[in-house]
Design goal:
The chain is of the alpha/beta class. It has one domain (about 30-475): Alkaline Phosphatase, subunit A, CATH 3.40.720.10. It contains 15 helices and 18 strands. It has a ten-stranded mixed beta sheet, with helices on both faces. Helix 5 runs parallel beside helix 8 (about 290-325) and helix 7 (about 255-270) runs parallel beside helix 10. It is globular, with a radius of gyration of 24 Å. The model is unreliable at about 5-15 and about 15-30 (pLDDT under 50).
């Protein structure tokens, strides 16, 4: 018979062995399944961060760029909800239910199964797939993929959420930013939510992310944190101490600043040397404005820059926190934007803007002295948007590069390219399968939880990130795109594009976007075989994805704001 001492020693040895086995399992889980932080800016232009040639200070995003790889030929959708739906599912927008934002769907398209404006029940989110494999999943920020109880992120795979369901909202307080909403629709874990008195959007989203991460710290499970910022969607607002850093920066106007950005982007290796650019139609002459108009336009950009820098600072707070708790080195960071810069002209010095009457009713103003602060409404407008998009043509909503090409920065475990920039073409649907691969989670192949779902169409490029593969997309593979009648198809280095709402332009064009990202040299006449082949590819894409025709006279911005004139 064993003595009590021997029994105790056996018990202790057994306990230690069990604890060691558990610890080994935790370490294995952590090593094979890194944390994922997916950061999505809103309406951020192609050269709006310092690694891409911006005068705006973004040291924390720059640190991620130095630690990883920056994609200078990454493409997304031309407006928010379609981009977010593709980002979170890997499924084309015409199959995931969100080919357009719900606020802009014309009556002729409402009622079709693939034109819902919210995520279809036939798709599975990235969060769901990660959560199924033991990831904690958190979301803090703008959702805009549905606001009914069965459409919120809390039932789309996210454990903990702070979600703003609309196209946008005020950054200082709980109020709507457009008269198309009766209120700002905020939710926390699926329930109506009231914002704190000291709310500022970028700060609050990072505060809550840190809170969610800490709530499960030490349990051995990795986390996926999705942070879709409101920065820099209108109303463009920032603490004055950030905006004032850029005082005088934009006094020379958009023509000068656009050229400065172009040169800086060349030096940074973001675009080819001697990249040409065109003036986006409708851009005003800076010298033709009054002193008061120039002053106001410049201040709008100062606030915009301040909002970008404030976002970067709060990203840095999250990075510092993860370092402090020992999770930073095991975290994959992805930073990008949902679409190009916003060019809606909603603020005017003469106060004759589309929203002037509503501003007066609800107490919004666009006064120079307090622009960007609480109670003010700011938007950079179409002319300043050409700075944010430089050297690209057009901006948000358009299928030109200024609407679709945005920064993408990735760093962390599994990403062996360090401090590099690449002009390999990447599309937004590629991120879901790539993130799953980096997380060690298998992507579904059209079936989930015993039912058929839409297949992931994006390309997993984790092999490229790990230096195992040299290319991402085969040069013969076409990738189609449509939103609001604006159309494009990418194939290798080439792109055909048709902007339904472009000024005095209702034709298809062909560009080599690797050598000519500014879309200045139309090759349609010079390369008719390639041009016609890609037009045929687009028709196949439209047919296979049930892309519906647009009604006569449709314009996305007019559709959103049509009710304001009634």
């Amino acid at each position: 018979m064993y003595s009590k001492t021997i029994i105790f020693k056996l018990f202790l040895a057994s306990s230690l062995a069990f604890a060691s086995a558990v610890q080994a399992q935790i370490e294995s889980l952590t090593a094979d399944h890194p944390n994922i932080v997916l950061i999505l800016a809103d309406d951020l232009g192609f050269t709006d961060i310092s690694p891409f040639g911006s005068e705006i200070s973004t040291p924390n995003i720059a640190a991620l760029a130095r630690a990883g790889v920056s994609f200078t030929n990454y493409h997304t959708a031309g407006s928010c909800a379609p981009a977010r739906a593709m980002l979170l599912t890997g499924v084309d927008s015409h199959r995931n239910g969100v080919p357009n934002i719900p606020e802009a769907l014309p009556a002729e398209q409402i009622g079709f199964d693939n034109y819902l404006g919210v995520l279809s029940d036939k798709v599975v989110t990235l969060a769901t797939l990660l959560n199924d494999e033991g990831y904690h999943t958190y979301m803090t920020g703008k959702w805009h993929l549905g606001h009914t109880p069965n459409q919120l992120p809390s039932v789309k795979g996210f454990e903990r959420t702070i979600a703003m369901a609309d196209t946008g909202a005020d950054n200082w307080e709980q109020r709507p930013y457009l008269p198309i909403y009766d209120k700002a629709n905020w939710y926390a874990d699926g329930q109506a939510h009231t914002l704190p008195d000291d709310f500022y959007s970028s700060k609050y989203f990072v505060d809550k992310t840190i809170e969610f991460v800490d709530s499960n710290a030490g349990d051995g499970q990795p986390f996926f944190a999705y942070i879709p910022f409101q920065a820099v969607h209108m109303p463009v607002q920032a603490p004055r101490e950030f905006s004032d850093k850029y005082s005088g920066m934009y006094d020379e106007g958009w023509t000068v600043m656009r050229e400065k950005r172009r040169k800086a982007a060349e030096i940074a290796g973001v675009i080819p040397d001697d990249t040409k650019m065109v003036v986006t139609p409708g851009t005003l002459e800076w010298d033709g404005l009054t002193d008061e108009q120039r002053r106001h336009h410049a201040r709008r950009m100062e606030v915009y820059a301040g909002m970008v820098e404030a976002m970067d600072m709060h990203i840095g707070r999250l990075m510092d926190h993860l370092k402090a708790i020992g999770e930073f080195e095991n975290t994959v960071f992805i930073f990008t934007s949902d679409n190009g810069a916003e060019g809606s002209n909603l603020v005017r010095v003469d106060e004759k803007s589309l929203l002037s009457n509503w501003f007066n009713q609800v107490g919004y103003h666009s006064n120079y002295d307090t622009l960007g602060e609480k109670g003010s409404f700011n938007a950079i407008g179409p002319n300043n948007a050409t700075i944010a998009a430089s050297p690209l043509a057009f901006y948000k909503f358009y299928a030109s590069e200024g609407g679709l090409r945005v920064p993408l920065v990735m760093a962390g475990p599994g990403i062996n390219k360090r401090g590099q920039k690449t002009d390999e073409f990447v599309f937004v649907t590629d991120l879901t399968p790539t993130i799953l691969s980096l997380a060690g989670v298998e992507a579904h192949s059209g079936s989930w939880s015993g039912k058929p779902v839409e297949e992931i169409v994006g390309k997993d490029f984790s092999g490229f990130l790990a230096n195992r593969e040299n290319d991402i997309h085969d040069a013969s593979t076409p990738i189609g795109y449509e939103l609001g009648g604006n159309r494009a198809l990418f194939k290798g280095d080439y792109k055909v594009v048709f902007n339904r709402t472009a000024v005095d332009d209702q034709t298809w064009h062909l560009f080599n976007i690797r050598t000519d990202p500014g879309e200045t040299n139309d090759l349609a006449a010079d390369e008719p075989i390639r041009f016609n082949e890609m037009l045929s590819d687009y028709q196949n894409f439209a047919r296979e994805n049930n892309v519906l025709p647009m009604p006569q006279g449709y314009d996305q911005r007019r559709q959103i704001f049509s009710s304001l004139n009634n």
